[in-house]
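User: hey, got a sec? need NAD-dependent succinate-semialdehyde dehydrogenase folded
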Amino acid sequence: MELMPDATLTSLQLPPCALLINGQWRQSAHSFPVVDPANGQVLAQVASASLDDAAEALSAATNAFTHWRRSTATERSQLLQRWHQLMLQQRERLAQLLCAEQGKPISEARAEIDYAASYLNWFAGEALRLEGDWQHPSVAGRQLLNIPEPVGVVLALTPWNFPAAMVTRKLGAALAAGCTVLLKPAESTPLTALALAELAMEAGIAPGVIQVLPCATPDPLAAFLIASPQVAKVSFTGSTGVGRLLMQQSATTLKRLSLELGGNAPVLVFADADLDAAVTGIMAAKFRNAGQTCICINRVLADAKIAPELEQRLAAAVMALQVGAGQVDTVQIGPLISAKAVQKVQQLVEGAILQGARLVCQQRLPAALQPGPAGGYFFPPTMLADVTMQMGICQQEIFGPVLTLQTFTDEAQALQLANQTDGGLAAYLYGGDEKRNYRLARQLTAGMVGINATAISDARIPFGGVGSAGFGREGSKYGVADYLQLKHLCWELAE
Ligand code: SIN
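Assistant: Yep! Here you go:
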């Protein structure tokens, strides 16, 4: 069985591996390599933005804001639509790039491009639906108007796990609202973002509306931009630790923030659940992007009555997953993003076993997939049972292909276990009693709940969490609201 593809490097259509500032592609003094996590092969050298580059980009975004904010909603909507169309036209090229730099299976990469494009389509519609209101005055002759205005220049910090969808989810909303953007893509996956920006330029989006600043050492660059009062808002998807830091840094200039941070998603499986649907849903939501998704299931909580059967069915499904380079059509689990990521997952598994977890199953990876100088960052699909909330593996996002199982005996215990987390992005439940489903869904600590469903991501839903999973909503009509502020006009009209 083929696990590694023939060399794909030559077939990749790379975007400009440069900075995009004021509509111009520019090299910089330094560059950094982008590697394929399946084999360590260098895919490209990408320009790394300096603080001077960032200052220039900021000035371009600030200038562009003066005209972009005055463009009509129809113009902005049409440009987003054109960008969306170009993405679909280049779907295969974008999916190949995404797969090569991020590692996810090509089928998932294609699905991500469709998902990412759907945000542009959605926000093209939202641009047309922006509206304010008029109020009855308390003083005769006055007109009271509430008008939504774009907040200004936005710093978008996007993660490596969804290099396309997180760009369009942020930029689609920002542009629809009339904001201009500084985009800093994750340093391990800038190629997809650069290709998207190339298409945005082709769509006719004016110079200065979108800047792209790949950077090998992003912390000083982000700190520099956040310190500037010219940046009105920061939108970040990533870890809770970095989210906290960005919030501290934003305090001085009182920035608006949207933070989509880490989750610790539980799935509750009740005895009356449709187990076929539960197994399918759990496998899809646990192993999406090799477990490297913020809304991946982190903890399976099963009613003790069906736990043995669920364990057996899940174990069979885990052992059947095909691991390999994402470019191979049949592969379901690609590499993790880095050696550090593999090490972290390994430590969580070992720590849990030391604390009493039971290793239900773990695939043995063939030599071609073993980590090594020429090998990639693969981790074998694994299942652990008898885990407890005291274990690191239940407290932290695993971000790897490891399924954990624990049991409950009644509804109260199920809820108590599910909510033993200081924040929640997604939670899921499977059960046949719709009243209980609704009751629990309302009590789960999470921004989004899947009821007998796990594939919940959609441009039309408000994506976001509660507590340490962050705040702000992306997608939906609420997503664009995060890039707007109300201006009130109290207008005394001489009659
Ligand atoms: C994420 O992992 O942050 C995004 C996942 C999604 O949009 O479905």
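Quick note: The CA atoms of residues 62 and 153 lie 6 Å apart. Let me know if you need anything else on NAD-dependent succinate-semialdehyde dehydrogenase.
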